[in-house]
Amino acid sequence: MAEIKAADVAALRKATGAGMMDCKKALEESGGDLEAAKDWLRAKGLAGASKRAGRAAEQGAIDVRVEGGVGALVELTAETDFVAKSTDFKAIVADLAVLAVEAGRDELADLAYQGATVGEHVTQLAAKLGENVALGRVVLFETTDGLLDGYVHVQNERGVMGVLVELAGVDPAAPAAREIAHDVALHIASAAPMFVDRADVPSEVIERETAVFEELTRNEGKPEAAVPKIVEGRLNGFYKDTVLLEQGFVKEPKQTIAQLLATLGADATVRRFVRVKIGE
Fold it and tell me: How do residues 40-51 score in pLDDT, each as one tens digit?
């Protein structure tokens, strides 16, 4: 049997919210594999599809910039929110978002910035603030025929979450399309979808969810003949939770995002999106 470390038990408990002894049992049953242990807990009904998995304790700030057919999301990380909300810190992350759009690049470290490179400036900022400051995630979207929009959620005096979204099959200049693009960006920030549509869901994810739902259903004592139908219903629930186009619009939950987009025309859809949150 694999050695179960206290640190692994603590990490699993933090990721799933399950009890300490349940986490230890899950790790024992899965040979110490953290991901398999999460599935074991879910199958036993001891943990939900936790969105806390993978979170880290980092702090920092995020900014988003969209100009025409180019959009950029930039994250700058730090150790404390005290540093992350400082004037210098927020000014630099805003500058870097502009720089990414102007340069059309998602690799910024070697770009010129204030008499040095971005990498050198970040190092200097870390020395000035006395913390481990680093350039985090940078995402660049470019389009020739789509409509880009972005959103930054501000909390504790700095951006803590950023979204970029691209709509396709719409007139980028139409006010209604621009309004809905921004509504979709706001929705993504709130609802945290993982995929655009069902076709985006990897087959291994579907197989994994199906296996978990089958075991969970049997553990609940449901008749074997009823298992496929129940699993199908739970899988549809998974899609509604994680697939953007199937989620209920946060401003009008009875209307799906697909139905919202349909008001712009039959071809309107989401081509891609990204959602980045500090600490995740």
Answer: 888 877 765 344
**CA–CA separation, 97 and 59 (whole Å):** 18
| Spatial separation of the C-alpha atoms in residues 188 and 179, rounded to whole Å | 14
State the pairing for strand pair 70-78/59-67: antiparallel
Give the β-pairing of 112-113 and 116-117.
antiparallel
Q: What is the homologous superfamily of the domain 59-195+249-277 according to CATH?
A: Elongation factor Ts, dimerisation domain (3.30.479.20)
User: How far apart are the C-alpha atoms of 58 and 80, rounded to whole Å?
Assistant: 8
Longest Cα–Cα distance in the chain: 71
Domain boundaries, the chain: 1-55, 59-195+249-277
pLDDT digits (tens, 9 = 90+) for 23-66: 888 898 898 888 888 888 888 777 653 443 333 437 999 999 99
The crossing angle, in degrees rounded to 10, of helices 20-29 and 6-16 is 110
Residue in the block written with tokens 């630099």: 92
Q: Are 97 and 72 in contact (CB under 8 A)?
A: yes
CA 193 to chain centre: 7
- Cite the DSSP H helix spans in the chain: 6-16, 20-29, 34-43, 81-84, 87-103, 118-129, 175-191, 203-219, 227-242, 257-262
**Which CATH code for domain 1-55?**
1.10.8.10
**Helix, strand or coil, per DSSP, at residue 247:** coil
